[in-house]
Amino acid sequence: MGRGPSIEGRKNAEDARRGKIFTKLIREITIAARLGADPASNARLRAGIDKAKAVSMPNDTIERALKRASGADAADLHELRYEGYGPAGVALIIDCMTDNQQRTVADVRSALTKHGGNLGTSGSVAFQFKHLGELVFATPDAAGEEKVLEIALDAGADDVQAENAQSTVLCAPENYEAVKKALLAAKLEPVRADIVWRPENRVAVSGETEETLLDLLDKLDELDDVQEVYHNAALTDA
After folding, report:
1. Phi, psi of 70 (to 5 degrees)
2. Which residue spans of the chain are classified as CATH 1.10.10.200?
3. What pLDDT shows up at residue 1?
4. Splitting the chain (238 residues) into consecutive groups of 10 residues, what average pLDDT does each group show?
5. Which residues of 104-143 are buried (b: 16+ CB within 10 A; e: fewer)?
6. Which of 59, 70, 153, 204 has the most CB atoms less than 10 A away?
7. pLDDT at 168
8. What is the predicted pLDDT for the residue at 68?
9. CATH superfamily of 7-74
10. What whole-number distance in Å separates Cα of residue 103 and Cα of residue 24?
11. pLDDT in the model for residue 236
12. How far is it, in rounded angstroms, from Cα 69 to Cα 30?
């Protein structure tokens, strides 16, 4: 009878995953700090540091990322956005940071092609998404929903959608910090919060198509240069 992964094996896998998350966040902080090293006046940097602290990144690691922004290697980092299609025509936006654009586009194209997708031109799928601040809160009862709704709208949010015991606050990117600050001040801690590319409509996928898409998303996430991947699929897989 086979045995499952050892405790050491699971720990190594978790350490590798944590290391990859740290690498992506360090790059984000480094890029953001180019616009100014003071989080008080740099909303993007503040958001990056908040995300780093949320996954328990040590302060000295954050400090090194900030110092790296003024170094020569940081100047070689470039932000790239690729648009394309996955299996069954699922639309994808793939945000990358890289010091080698040829490597990155080759890796992204290869992952898409191997999963029945293809790389598109700039603007080919972006029109199917909106760039929005998105904050999700656990709201198991009507009172919680009402509290999130009232505070969010007063702070400048555009919409609040309640479903499956969660309330999703949507706002313009420029209002994100103010909305988040107001909700945190009311002791409302988001399950997740970020500025995202949110699809206008979702495409239903299931069976083998969904399995292929999930594998594609995993492969893209494993690429060192990929920061975020957004798609318009309505996934059924838990």
Report:
1. -95, 0
2. 7-74
3. 46
4. 59 73 91 87 90 92 87 76 96 96 96 97 96 96 96 97 95 94 96 94 94 96 94 82
5. bbebbeebbeebbbebbeeeebbebbbebbbbbbebeeee
6. 153
7. 97
8. 83
9. Integrase, N-terminal zinc-binding domain (1.10.10.200)
10. 17
11. 83
12. 5
pTM of the model: 0.84
Burial of 175 (0-12, 13-18, 19+ CB in 10 A): middle
CATH of domain 77-238: 3.30.70.980
Q: Label residue 187 left, alpha or beta by phi (over 0 means left) and psi (-120 to 50 means alpha).
A: left
Bridge partners (DSSP) of residue 234 are: 204
